[in-house]
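quick one before i forget lol
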Amino acid sequence: MATDLHELLRTLRVWDPKVTNLPSFDPASAPDAPLPLFTDWFAEAVAAGETEPHTMTLSTSDEEGLPDARIVMLHGTDADGWAFATHATSRKGRELAARPYAALTFYWPVHGRQIRLRGPVTVAPAEEAQTDLHVRSTGALAAALTGRQSEVLGSVEQLARASEEAWDRASREPTSEAPTWTLYRLRPDTVEFFQGDARRRHVRLAYRRETAGRWTRELLWP
């Protein structure tokens, strides 16, 4: 029997109290810049057992302005921006080369929170990308060495062979370089913090970058 999607949807609930705790959030107590608040919320998500809190949706657009989105991993964040990595030859790499502006979205249902960022994307120096890659797992290096991301794949057997070769090389040569592996940084123009509320009085606090590194803050209707 075919699954009835609509029946399944009716059985689901957002922010079930059994698994979600909605903290109070007073925007008046928020810091002057978004990075400290992001760091606090991230740490709280980790402490609460959020599954893979370091994953985020990266949204880009192609040369024609058509949108695209996928899940990637946060590699770090500081005053220079939020960092992620991929092959420059991948679809997202090509889109970022054509339009170096993107959006990031974090969603942490354990606290009913999401964080949205938009801003220009820059490419880090090649040596930083390789250093970042080499502190990660053997599997991460093997995946980078396999390469050819977003290209048409002839068969699963072809992938298996290339992957085995890459794993072997990554194990034997842990400092192998993946030439197209690229570290990117999104330096946000805007950052929005969303805190869910059980009575749907959600708090939305938006930061907007001004000159000289200063930020303005404003509340948004939910």
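fyi The first strand starts at residue 55 and ends at 61.
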